[in-house]
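Researcher: We're teaching a course module on how sequence relates to structure. For the next exercise, students receive a sequence and then see the predicted structure as tokens, so they can try to spot secondary structure elements on their own. Here is the exercise chain.
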Amino acid sequence: MSQSTPSRPRRLVTALAFASIAAVALAGCSSAGATGGGGSGDDLDAALEKGGELTYWTWTPSGEEQAAAFMKEYPNVEVTVVNAGTATDEYTKLQNAISAGSGAPDVAQVEYYAMQQFALSDSLLDLTPYGFGDLEVDYTASTWGAVNLNGGIYGLPQDSGPMILMYNQTVFDEFGLEVPTTWDEYIAAAQKLHAADPTKYITNDNGDPGYAQPLIWQAGGRPFETDGTNVTINLEDEGTKLWADTWNQLLEPELLAPIGTWTDDWWKGLGNGSIATLVTGAWMPGILEGSVPEGAGQWRVAPLPSYDGSAVTAENGGSAQSVIKQTKNPALAAAFLKWLNNSDTSIDVFLGEGGFPSTTAQLNDEEFLNATPEYFGGQEINKVLLDASENVAEGWQYLPFQVYANSVFADTVGQSYVSKSDIIPGLDAWQQNLVEYGNSQGFTVNK
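Model: And here is the predicted structure for the students to work with:
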């Protein structure tokens, strides 16, 4: 999930039904009106002075306000903001426009997990010639790694989602629960809570790939490796099995609320205390505060439980913005993108809408760190979130057909959730499906 989930009750769901991008990854899309080419920082300044028109696709709640602030600063540029839908909806429209050779925006929001697919298909502009490589120091390592692909810079990070634990202090006090620091403690808390009140659950999960994969990441699993069109898939590695064996202890005894994230029942559960914790990304506190007013004063933020009590975590969601290679004005689009995700003015607007930044300057700002929101009982939650951002495990890779992979999670691993049975066979089915699909699209898939 990403912070870009604007309104209750309809939120972005990461179980995606979209499979067309991987096929074009092999053919390339540079012929579809791509402009590419070189540039420099001077070109960006000149482009802003000359001006022109840009189209920006985003579902970020702050998008319109950011564009307005940009146009106030650069009146020669007109930016049209279009909400083309969240995630799958936008990606489908974007891929159709890329394939058609016209109709794509100049700049688009792309989640980190989908970045590899669009970059590999030569649909995104490499921003290295414009000096974007020099901006690495401004971002957290994990988010920069998500846009630094195949020797190029294919976007600038917008937000980040280091995983954290959010818990209902009122429920924990009522049932005598301690904040867990390990997954064993978390499972014990789940057992104690549900035994005391069968209407209450430690958390919910009905089988979401955007939820499972970061937990595999934290457990040390590295099931996907990509080198161009060479792909290795190993959903039997030690870390993946560790996560599955752990999660089975919640799934099989039916200790997980069997409701989907972002549904009406989920929001109700967060408000009435029947869901006691959220294993989620650092973008969630702002969403919770804005969407569950009845939870005010009850919720707190803690580090994600780990297997040994260490601070290691993973990324859950997050997005970047990229220049689409089809743009007719790459320098101007790059200049807008740089301002959008690298200027204090724009990032302040983003933070004002509850966003969690990927930029180290904002993450370390004293005012940001010392904030004590009443919703969270006056806790300095941003210090917890910052610690999480500094403890994201390295080495995770997504597939070059990750959108497709997520779309078939429900048909494979998801069946284990339906039957409340061992996750391992579901992972085996997922792997078989992905290997067959990858090979059918022309990738060389090893396992």
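Model: If you want an answer key for the exercise: The first strand starts at residue 52 and ends at 57. Residues 423-440 form the longest helix (18 residues).
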